[in-house]
Amino acid sequence: MKIYDRLYGEIVFPDLIQNLLDCPGLLRLRDVRMANNQFVSFPAFSNASRYEHSLGVCYLAGICAKSLNLSEKDKIELMMACLYHDVGTPPFAHAMEEVLQVEYEFDHENNLRQIIEGKNDSYAGNLEQIYMGNTIRLRSVCQSKAGRKLGLDVYRIAKLIVGDKSEPLSFLLNGNGMDLDNIDNIIRASTAMGIIDLKDCNLAKRLASSFIFNDKGEICYNALYIQDIRQWQRIRDEQYSAIFDSIEDFSYQTMIKKSLLLLIHEPDLECQLNKESWKLTDAEILHNYLLKNKKSASIMKRVLLNKPFHNLCVLYIKGEKVSSYINSHLADIETVASDYYRKKMEISEDNQEKDDATINAVVANFYLDKRKRPIQTEALMMGQSVPIDGNADTSCQGALLGLFTPNASNSYKTITSTDGARVRKVVSFSSKELEEMIKELKEKIFKKFEVSVYGKRKDKRDNKSTTENQLGFF
Question: Which of 21, 219, 334, 474 could form a disulfide with 171 if both were Cys (CB 3.0 to 4.6 A apart)?
Fold first, then answer.
């Protein structure tokens, strides 16, 4: 069977890989998007699937294996790991994973590793049904005559997927900075978003050949490709800046995540989501769960009809382990912000519950800032180390925190004046009150973090240098 990829054209896989392309675990990914939401600003990106991305990463692994002169066994195991790396990804990708992470400590890579190794909670072990009542085929293909002849090891493949440091080749798929997964991810997403031209697709192929072994047998980069690596970094930074600038899409992702969270605690078992819900597809979870439940349906209908929640502000939070901290404290953030917003907008909690299914007057969500992330692994030229990012700041992370409300920022209240007359009063949420809300969040939630308003200066998208501090454009 011939396969044509929109980035790489016709791609040809070895027979052992070809035998896996109809694996149920992979086929589920045809209906799991790369994007976390509908991305109104980037309509083509909203249709890119994790199935096509998985094929792309596997294809790049073949190029990489040839460049590194890997053995046939190493090549096939690396390609299999790349092909399967997203099989454990839940619908709506990171949006749902963040929900499952807080509730069940879910991690899509470790989840897949446990299934492959048969160490998952299911009594079926590695025969657990993943999609349409079927199991994944990785083990059976590895144990086929051709697989046994090569000595394929499913346990090693699982280690490569999760980035186990005992396996040197794991850096190629789960590395610190730039690996085969995010090479394809950035180029595929950026072309779909219209940020770069299709001619830049050749960059992905060149970067797949940029890996070499040092004298210790560790994977590093060939310094001859430094300009390509820096071009990839610039594309990465531009892509994330474009996503961050689309406030409407930030709102949609927030609404989707809130809808998913509501169903985690849903008493109606028919609509309840749990740690096994990762096996669903985007369409299944949308139509069979989110639109069937009254609470989540009111939010999802707004998403589908392009009626986003109103943005109050986007904050930039900087500090150690900031994304995990925000994710585990979203409820606290919403409580503090909602209490303040209700008070200033004169909204009673009882009325809010009747008016909107989210209950909270303010809902929160975050993006981890993946721009300006340095590549710390060395690059080699004639045995000499060449720095890629110089003295880039690696001290702590940054994240964008979005605060949204289903209510309008202005409303009218009917009040009785001192002389007994009934008059209409305009109630609005001003910039001064927003500053007071931010101050409360800082004092009650983010004492140990640096907090600023995102995008205050016009040059917030200055991406000329990949070595500057990530707060340099505020």
Answer: 219
